[in-house]
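Supplementary Text 2. Reproducibility record for the structural model of the 261-residue chain.

All settings were left at their defaults, and a single model was retained for analysis rather than an ensemble. We include the record here because the model underlies the residue-level annotations in Supplementary Table 4.
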Amino acid sequence: MCNRRTAKIAVISCTHSPFTPAKTQDWVLDQLSSIPDLTHFGHLGDVFEAGAASVHASASEYEHTLEDEYEHAAGFLKSIRDVLPKGCRRWINTGNHDDNLLAKDPRRVPKSLRKLVDWRNHPDFGQEFNEWSWVPYEKSSRGVYRVGQCHFYHGFDCSVASDELEGLQILGSCGWVPFSLTVRGHTHRPVPPTQSKRTSKIPLPFWYSNVGTCGPLQPEYMKRRDCSQWGTALLVVECIWDRPSRLNGRCWEAELVRMLP
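Retained model, structure tokens:
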């Protein structure tokens, strides 16, 4: 890093309250407490499981309520705020599970109730949720949180190659900033910072990463599917905090820290 102003950023994703394992919560807090001089912290979405807004029959078997999800999520977010440095910027990318609560889909939540289930309006827990900046769930530049050459979003597609392909789509919507890093969650598969390629021998000036999940690694709904590539991780990024148009070359470094089984 040069002598210009730098940002140090930590990001996680997919906590799926109330199913975030207690040991995972402790691990996240320990990691954040050990990173000096954090300027930004991001949660890349799926804060809630949002089972109450699911169209799948299995969701009706959940024993907890939507309010239980809000209580659990607010508590975890508060504990994160408590360990972050004063003045650290905080944001949350709305995930697809979170967006299900507000989506214009009567199969999930009737139109007349959507405002009532908005977590930011909850009389007991809304205050905590309003301590965070929320980025909308949109596959466009509006759904991206940007710091220098780094782009953070939740994710939309789930194929094995989607980290790279979707990262390029996101960069296209943001103006094709050279030497950019795109970071997402969604698939629950951690991927360290990796350079995109046009072919196996032609690298592109773009990188992508995935921070995996902070939720359960073997949930009930995956018992007949393969989740062997799922993992819990946290990404730490240090980058020049400036307009991308004023940067030359790659002005960031990133490390994926994985939680051991």
